[in-house]
Amino acid sequence: MTTIRRSSRDAISSITVEDVARRAGVSRATVSRVVNASPRVSPETRRAVEKAIEELRYVPNPAARALMTRRSDSVAVVILESANRLFEDPYFNQLLLGISGGLADQEVQLVLLIAQSGREEERLERYIAAGHVDGAMIIGPRGNDEMPRRLVDRGVPIVVNGRPSGHDLPGSPHTLSYVDVENREGARAAVAHLAAGGRRRIATIHGPLDLPSGRDRLSGYRDGLAAAGLEADPGLERPGEYIPAVAAEAMRTLLAQRPDIDAVFAASDSMAAAVLGVLLDAGRRVPDDVAIVGFDDSPVATSVRPALTTVRQPIVAMGREMARLLMRQIADPEGAPSRVIFPTELVVRDSSAPRPPAAAGPATASHSPSLGAVTPASTPPGAGR
Amino acid sequence: MTTIRRSSRDAISSITVEDVARRAGVSRATVSRVVNASPRVSPETRRAVEKAIEELRYVPNPAARALMTRRSDSVAVVILESANRLFEDPYFNQLLLGISGGLADQEVQLVLLIAQSGREEERLERYIAAGHVDGAMIIGPRGNDEMPRRLVDRGVPIVVNGRPSGHDLPGSPHTLSYVDVENREGARAAVAHLAAGGRRRIATIHGPLDLPSGRDRLSGYRDGLAAAGLEADPGLERPGEYIPAVAAEAMRTLLAQRPDIDAVFAASDSMAAAVLGVLLDAGRRVPDDVAIVGFDDSPVATSVRPALTTVRQPIVAMGREMARLLMRQIADPEGAPSRVIFPTELVVRDSSAPRPPAAAGPATASHSPSLGAVTPASTPPGAGR
DNA sequence: CTGAAAGCGCTAACAA
DNA sequence: TTGTTAGCGCTTTCAG
């Protein structure tokens, strides 16, 4: 093995351990030890090697290293979402931010994979299955998407964002690690808050029902009505997507058919902002005529006027937790899958102030403990339940 | 959950060409030919191999392949930005969307790399220089960041988003490929539009000046004033960042010191939305008292009321173009660097309607050819007035 | 059209 | 502490 080639012609640096070794007057193995911070190298040798590395601007070839170590030192974030939502909704940004933060200490690179069609999703699954990454965080699988399960079956460490379908039953064994938020409880608190403010005809524009979060928030809405002694009314439940335009359309229809509503719970803040726009355009006063509560506490909640009351979910923290779980799973592939459920927090702003004619309730912000709904934030370790 | 080592062998599928070859009764070379769609394989052999691949669920090891081919078949998107902006601003989402779309046909994976600190940026540069990806699109390098240049020197194909510093002079030779938008012209058109609407004390909250887009939009603002015969007034220029909170603070200060302003040009829509909030909170009527124009045509522009007049930039198309340029450069590394500058388009909405008391000028929106500035928008419902 | 053989650049035993 | 020796799984001449 002489390696006669590798002259100065290649465009991209093709400097190898061999070159460094020769220059430093040591063997390839020693160079490798220095690069991998092995303690079994004498200080002077180390210095000589480091100098050679510096001078040659040597960087190890990741493919060769991965071939040997069977690790890529990178993990994937898989986003399964339509174009629309991806760029309407800051949810993904925040989650990414949290994930990226949770990985900052580790020597791991983040690989973002986006699939907007079945074909793309297949290619992406192959990519992951091939071992191109050491693990993956999967965001937004819909309905009966079996991709996460298949990857788990192949032995790939996986963490899913949001309770996967099939994990619906409270006591059912979970075979996938996932991170979720108390969607149902959050929605319940939102509606309880509206009812406490004197609202009686509370509608909802809910999210897609093939997403657990969509279903759970709708359930919470119903819980809230029931708890307040209000009757459920199918005409007040309107289907939506986590897309402003869809929510706006649903709201217009709702308003036309049920002009008497006095409150709306929207399944996301961007939806709530759209709802607000429709109401204002229709000449309704918010919150005097109609109150609004959203979900997320995204930046748009404070961009609009009146600012939106909303159910905050700790998205960044959730991202961080996903990263943590994944790294743990990579380190110990035999460990049991874990799930972490984060609490929500009702953030009261102007869009849900009690209706003026109502009795003098506490009109200022902050939570009303009497509702039993407001979960004080922090406290991430809400695992299991 | 048991899952005790589900297979006879390693946790992760370690099926190799060898296994496939044996099963199909051929040599490794032949399997490789089938996998790489070489024409030099007989149909029956091909079928046999494909069958074996299917049965064994074989996927090639990317590291081994990359080691041999010296290509990773993946490209990076490098985002150099603070947490704040990253999740306040849909700009990145749209750009990513365009990039991802531009890559859809190619057999290439997208690798997203985020750096929020110098340390992270260094690690990331090493990652790219190592040849972990075949090329990179770099978004948001500030001031005198030499990272793109260093990568180019190493022979890595690079495309930058936004004119890099050092490419300021119109006639200067460009040594880096980049995609940009006509920031200066767009800003000029915005101000011209405000002036045409009868505004006389037009302020600006501009972007960061260590970003070419920040500088260019400020220059355009000044151009617009000059063209309208309005005097430049340093007191009307307020520094900002592409962050709503920063813009809001700047606006509050401005309003306190110069309560007589009748228009504001903000360097981005999210900034403009924040400006709008401050003005409404201060009891100003928009657009009657103060008109607002933003930049981007991001979703928030139509979320707020009044909807924002804005300078649209074709972000998705820019992303697509970046991907195209990069792939071309990867295919032909010797080719000259290219740059593509996209036009902007003024989109007139409610926030900039002409002031009511003004003389009966042309009150409707749309362009004033004399200004040569306004590209008629495709008129989303609500243009004009 | 197919197989044999030679590495790609690296790490990881095993010696020395 | 350091060097020697084997490959990791794949593609790719070069024979047959």
SSE inventory with pairings:
The structure is a homodimer of 385-residue chains.
Chain A: H1 17-24, H2 28-35, H3 43-56, H4 62-69, E1 74-80, H5 83-88, H6 91-103, E2 109-115, H7 118-129, E3 136-139, H8 147-153, E4 158-161, E5 177-181, H9 183-196, E6 202-206, H10 212-227, E7 237-239, H11 244-257, E8 263-266, H12 269-281, E9 291-296, H13 300-303, E10 309-312, H14 315-331, E11 339-342, E12 345-347
Helix pairs in contact in A: 1-2, 1-3, 2-3, 6-14, 9-10, 11-12
The first copy, chain A, binds a DNA duplex (16 and 16 nucleotides) through α2 and α4.
Question: Could you characterize the architecture of this molecule?
Answer:
The structure is a homodimer of 385-residue chains. Chain A has helices at 17-24, 28-35, 43-56, 62-69, 83-88, 91-103, 118-129, 147-153, 183-196, 212-227, 244-257, 269-281, 300-303, 315-331, and strands at residues 74-80, 109-115, 136-139, 158-161, 177-181, 202-206, 237-239, 263-266, 291-296, 309-312, 339-342, 345-347. With 385 residues, chain A is α/β, with parallel strands linked by helices. The first copy, chain A, has a six-stranded parallel sheet, sandwiched between helices. Chain A has a six-stranded mixed sheet with strand order 7-6-8-9-10-12, with helices on both faces. The radius of gyration of chain A is 27 Å and the shape is elongated. Mean pLDDT of chain A is 85; it is low at 1-12 and 358-385. At the A-B interface, helix 4, helix 5, helix 6, strand 2 and helix 7 of A face helix 4, helix 5, helix 6, strand 2 and helix 7 of B. The structure holds a DNA duplex (16 and 16 nucleotides).
